[in-house]
């Protein structure tokens, strides 16, 4: 009896009430909504562009940037040679340095004189060179004359020791008698203290392959 009553009671017990729309939510297929999917697509596109990616737009056209690029920098000026040959001189663009008030060539000028030696050897059309020593107006005239003469002869001796025939060289000092600058300024006096290599004899026709 009790068992039958229990079964009847179970059949008459009302089912739990479901909320409106609950069945519709459960029936929606899993996945992203259209608005959420669009937002994700835009985010991915912007992220690719920020990271250096290429974004192609349908119907887009290439455009040209106005203006001209800057010109290339000018080439550096040619390096000035320390020793050059002109029509009448072997020009040195550095000074030959001597010990103070002496006719002793300082070691830092040896490389310059070595270039003079090489230049003379490369220009066989040069037959005779007059080495001239010059001084500024500082000091006594007679002292400057003798000192410039000794210095010119010291340079000649150096060239002979390094292979230049002594017969093609002469050396003489002129003291302060042939200035090339104003002796009233230190800059001018410094220019007047110099050694020159003047070409006094040469072949008029230079070899075609000879370098300058």
Q: What ranges have pLDDT less than 50 throughout 5 or more consecutive residues? A: 48-55
Strand arrangement, largest sheet? 1-2-5-3-4
Shape: elongated
In what range is the share of β-strand residues?
5-15%
Helix/strand structural class: alpha+beta
- In helices, the fraction of residues equals 25-40%
Radius of gyration: 49 Å
Mean pLDDT over all positions: 80
Total beta strand runs: 5
Order of helices and strands: HHHEEHEHEHE
Which sheet architecture does the biggest sheet show?
5 strands, mixed
The number of helical runs is 6
**End-to-end distance, in Å?**
138 Å
Question: How would you describe this structure to a colleague?
Answer:
Helix content is 35%, strand content 14%. Helix 5 (141-161) links the parallel strand 3 (126-134) and strand 4 (169-173). It has 212 residues and is α+β, with helices and mostly antiparallel strands. A 5-stranded mixed sheet has the order 1-2-5-3-4. Mean pLDDT is 80; it is low at 48-55. The protein has helices at residues 2-12, 22-27, 34-50, 110-122, 141-161, 186-192, and strands at 83-85, 89-92, 126-134, 169-173, 194-202.
